[in-house]
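Can't paste images in this forum, so I'm doing it all in text. The chain is below; anyone willing to post the predicted structure tokens underneath?
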Amino acid sequence: MHSQRWRVEELAELTGLTVATIRFYQKRRLLAPPHREGRIAWYDERHRTRVERIRALQDDGLSLGMIGRLLDDDVSATDTLLAVAVAGREDKLEGARLTREELEERTGVPSQVIEALAAANLIGGVAGSTTSYAVADADLVATGVTLLEVGLPLDELLRLARRHHEATLEVAEEAVDMFDRHVRRPIRDSDGSADEKARRLVAAFEELFPAVTSLVSHHFGRVLLELATAKLQELDAPREQTA
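Text version of the structure:
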């Protein structure tokens, strides 16, 4: 007597996914190959449990790469909840995803400009196997159009954006490293259950993330205003009389 088993179409219907999705999981090696009897491929309860776990982790916002590591026990239980919290923050920050066509339609900006902004790492991101854009990207594109209408040249704006991205990346990497050394590792190595340490780690991240981003944003705005004021004072200063 066979244990419960299904063909791929039946497993797809049972889990609420498509046949293509299940086969994509297999291609990414997230799902073990089915048992074959002749030309028929059979999936069992282990496949069903694995598929439902993958789907739940995707619903939490995790990438397939991170899901693969979690399923292979490559990430500790303490870090699992942190990964979910980081993904949740990213979802809140970026919102729903748009295709390239949807972004162009929403903003009225030609594809060449969209490509230039994406190349400068200002917009865009990878979701699944395709490039997608956040709803927030549409607001950023609209802001860029406003700057162009004021008279700022596109090439100089993009050059400035690339420099800003490089500087931001450097600061962000240092901030992540500080969090790892001074928060994550001490909590991970402390006494207590994995669940308790995970909760402490997530609580620390949820408190620090908005504080750090607010601090950086405020500092940039203040420095920008200070430099603008200094520039205006320099322009308004009376020229020295020469003999």
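The CA atoms of residues 31 and 51 lie 7 Å apart. The chain has ten helices and six strands.
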